Structures are given as structure tokens and as C-alpha cells.
Amino acid sequence: MEKEKVVLAYSGGLDTSIIIPWLKENYDNLDIIACCVNVGQEDDMEFVKNKALSSGASKVYIQNVVNEFVEEYVYKGIKANAVYEGKYLLGTAYARPLIAKKLVEVAHKEGAKYIAHGCTGKGNDQVRIETAIASLDPFIKIIAPWRIWDISSREDAIDYAEAKGIDLNGITKKRIYSRDQNILHISHEGGMLENPANEPDFDELLMMTNTVEKAPDKAEYVDIEFKEGIPVKLNGEKLNGEDMLKALNKVGGTHGIGVIDLLENRLVGMKSRGIYETPGGTLLIEAHKYLESFVLEKEAAHFKETISSKYAELVYNAMWFSGLKDAFDAFIDITQKNVTGTVKLKLYKGTIKFAGMTSKYALYNESISSFSTGDLYDQKDATGFIHLYSLPYKIQALNEMNNSKNGSTEVVYTFKE
């Protein structure tokens, strides 16, 4: 009898490495196909492939989607200025719907009825992965070992891996941080970070970014050019999404840019603490915000701030494949038609300073905004504007004055002919 097939979201890390032998023990009727979606995690993919095969997978897919991840997912968030709870640039949340999409594609190609993943039962990613899968193919069934096996901690997972002879690639019970990396960011959770009273040991934690103390003592300038909200050139050189983010990660990481310590409200109802490194993404979103302030009309800019916040919540909360996100994208794309120009940033020891910008669509006009009188703005015109603008406040004051004098709530106005 031919076995049913399961596609396993495989990274080669602790959680997914132990899932292969566990599936073989508990689902002997399943043929395990590992699928590693490369979104820029800088792993040795040949090592990952061989590890999956040696652990019991019958076949391994390595999907390189780094540029697609940047241009079709990350850049949408940059255009939206999406930042969750004022700090988090959503590095993990952008990657999950793309990973789910690739898992479904492999499942269709292989005729697999099941998809398995290594997301824990306490995390957001289980919701993101499974909601995305359901949005793309509601008939695929999910196997989520962390919700059903007896392994209850990363220490238990390490013991299980050692018992099965699985290469832990440097993971120990002392260095037990849970990390997620892609080209946009790397997150660090677990270990000593679980106690909010502990100050992070950044010398031990950081992998993409220098500590502020180790950052250069000399500032560096970067020029980022945008076209309709999309970054297209760095210091005059045209780059695709992958190369743009790699280059900005390097320069931003050198200067200690984009490290946050976040106590966040998870989708699943609890608070969690994580250290996030997002050097290149931080540079992009700050440059984009500056440029928008230069070219967007006032009401569009103010309303977009509301959309930005809701967009971040939507992405964080597993709604990538939703009608609401499509509607937001349509609005955001319209706002980006004039977000074209170049922004200069000054980087120094973890800080980003504005250093100038240019755009042919600038709504800032020096002849109007300066203290000098220009042809386009007559300062005398402000008198009539102020009379009209202040009218409701004058009426309010008159009401209060009449009420206090007469002790009456009825106000009688007398108009001169």
C-alpha cells in the first residue's frame, strides 16, 4: 500500500530536526518530504538537505525565495510604514505567509494531504502558517507536533535529539535561545530573556549587528533612492530587493542600527519578550517616512498613519491573505505614486539622523515656507483665514460669557441689519 505524504516545513533547527524521527515513530504510514524555504537565513543549505535525509526524510526541497520575500512582502510593509506596537518591523510575520505558500505548492506537486510544522503551541507562527495554508488550500490537513507530543520544553527537545543522534549544530542547554533569521531580521527569545528583570547580554546575543560600544567612532552617510515607495538605488547604485537589504544590513549592522528589546502582546493572548535585530529594514523605513513627509499632502499623510498601525496589526495577526489587506494595499499604492526621491541618512552608534532629501514631487516650497514674503503666499491673507478658523471658539466663549452673566442657559443673539 502506497504511503500518504506529509510536507514538513524544515529549517534544520532544533524543533524541525526532531520532528522527522518523531513523525516516523508516530505516523508509520506517512512519507516525509522536507521543504526548506530560504528567506535569507544564511544557513548552509547543503548541510540542511543532508541533515533532513539522514534524519529520515525521503525527499528534500530547497526553495530559494529571498528576492521574492523582499520585493513582494517586505517592501509592502515598507510602503505601509508598518511597525507593530511602535517597535517591531515584523520580520517573522512577513516570512510565514510566503513559507506557507511554498509548502502548499510542494504539497500540490507531490500530492500530499498533510503539512507539518515545528511551531510551538504558545507562539504566533502556528496561527500564521495554518491560516495562510487554509487561505490557499482549505483541504490540506495540519500536523502540529508541539501541540500533541510529550516534549514540553527546549531542554526536552535537546534530550530527544541527542537520543536520536541528531546534530544540534552548537545548540546546548546553556545556549538555548530560540532564534529566527531571515534577510530582514533575526529574533532572539528564551533563555535569560524570559525574565524581564534581566538585562540582555548583547555581546552574546547579537549576530547581525554591532553593539553600540563596538560601532565605529566615525559617522557614515547613505543615500537611498525610492521610486513610488520602493527603494531602487543605494548610493547611486541600482539594486534588486535582495541586494539592497544585504547591503543595508551590512552598513546598518556595522553602526549598531535597529536593535530593540520588545515586550510584545502576542496574537495568542500572552506577553513575550524578544530581542530583534533589523538593521537594513530600520534604515529603509526611516528613509521612507522622511520622504513621505516631503511629498504627501497633509490629510493623506495623517490618515496613512492610522492605516500604518492597522496594517502592522493585520500582518502580525496572520491576515496576509485577507480582503482587508488587499484593500489596504490598494490605498497604500495610490499614496506611493509620488513617493519618489532620494533621502540621505547619517549613521552613528545606533542612531539615524536625517541629512537631506530631494524629490521632484516635493510639496515643501522654500519660497512659501520661509520667513520671507514670496509671490505664492501673501501673509495678509492669514487674517481672514484666522477669523474663519477661530469662529466656533469665539461663539463658545460668547456663550460662556452670557451664561455666567445672566445665569441662563438660553442665549439670544442680536444681529445688526
From TrEMBL:
- E.C. designation(s): 6.3.4.5
> Top enzyme class of this protein?
ligase
**What terms describe the molecular function in GO for this protein?**
argininosuccinate synthase activity; ATP binding
Instruction: Read off the SUPFAM superfamilies from this record.
Output: Adenine nucleotide alpha hydrolases-like, Argininosuccinate synthetase, C-terminal domain
Positions binding L-aspartate in this chain are T120, N124, D125
Q: Where does the Arginosuccinate synthase C-terminal domain lie?
A: 177-395
User: Would I find Cytoplasm among this entry's keywords?
Assistant: yes
Q: Which residues bind L-citrulline?
A: Y88, N124, R128, S178, S187, E264, Y276
InterPro entries linked: Arginosuc_syn_C, Arginosuc_syn_N, Arginosuc_synth, Arginosuc_synth_CS, Arginosuc_synth_type_1_subfam, AS_cat/multimer_dom_body, Rossmann-like_a/b/a_fold
Catalytic activity as recorded in UniProt: L-citrulline + L-aspartate + ATP = 2-(N(omega)-L-arginino)succinate + AMP + diphosphate + H(+)
Q: Does the keyword Iron-sulfur apply?
A: no
How it assembles, according to the record, is:
Homotetramer.
Protein family per UniProt:
Belongs to the argininosuccinate synthase family. Type 1 subfamily.
Q: What is this protein called in UniProt? A: Argininosuccinate synthase
Record organism: Sedimentibacter saalensis
